[in-house]
Structures are given as C-alpha cells and as structure tokens.
Amino acid sequence: MTAREKEKAKQDLHRLVDQLPDSELHAVRRFLEFLHQQSDPVLLALMSAPEDDEPETAEERAALAEAYADVAAGRLIPLEQVKRELGM
Predict the structure, then answer these.
(1) Domains of the chain: which residue ranges?
(2) DSSP code of 84?
(3) Which among 39, 58, 63, 70 would be 20 to 30 A from 21, CA to CA?
(4) Residues whose CB is less than 8 angstroms from the CB of residue 47 and which lie 6 or more positions away in sequence, other chains included
C-alpha cells in the first residue's frame, strides 16, 4: 500500500467513525484496541507467555511483606518524582 493509499484509508476510517451512532462507539473502540494489540509483538509475547507456576520462595514472600508494609506506612515515592530522577 502506498503512502497515498494509506492516507486515503485513514481518512475513510475517520469519516466512518465520525458517522457512527454513539451507541456503537464502545464496540468499535474495543475492536480497534484488539487490532492494535494483535500488531504489537511485545504484547503478543506477554499474552502468550506461560503462567508462572513456580512456587513462591521465602525470599519473595519477605520482599512482598516489606513492600506492603511500606505502602501501609506511606513510604512511597510519587511517580512524577521517579520520572524526574530517571530523566523521563
């Protein structure tokens, strides 16, 4: 498909979406999200990865307990601060 054909197809899709009744917007959005997910190789790999069936170790249980205690005590770093520190 040429760049011009792609642009025309996108314009056609926009026109069709604009003409949809409000009652159909949710269904169309979900379908478009589904199509997008099917084209994302990372998401496809994650969705098809086998479930982690290894038993939780004592070390993992302790780390989770510590994390939950930090949350309960309010010892958290705001996401915006983390982003700034990482230069994001």
Answers:
(1) 3-48
(2) H
(3) 39
(4) 37
What's the token pair of residue 87?
């230069």
Distance CA(69)–CA(75), nearest Å, equals: 9
CB 34 within 8 A of CB 28: no
- The answer to whether the pTM exceeds 0.70 is no
The DSSP line for 35-80 is: HHHHT-HHHHHHHHSPP--SPPPHHHHHHHHHHHHHHHHT----HH
Query: Residues 22, 24, 27, 30: is their CA dihedral positive or negative?
Result: negative
Q: Which of 12, 16, 35 lies closest to 25 in space, CA to CA?
A: 16
pLDDT in tens, 1-49: 899 999 999 999 999 999 999 999 999 999 998 888 888 888 888 888 9
Distance CA 55, CA 39 (A): 33
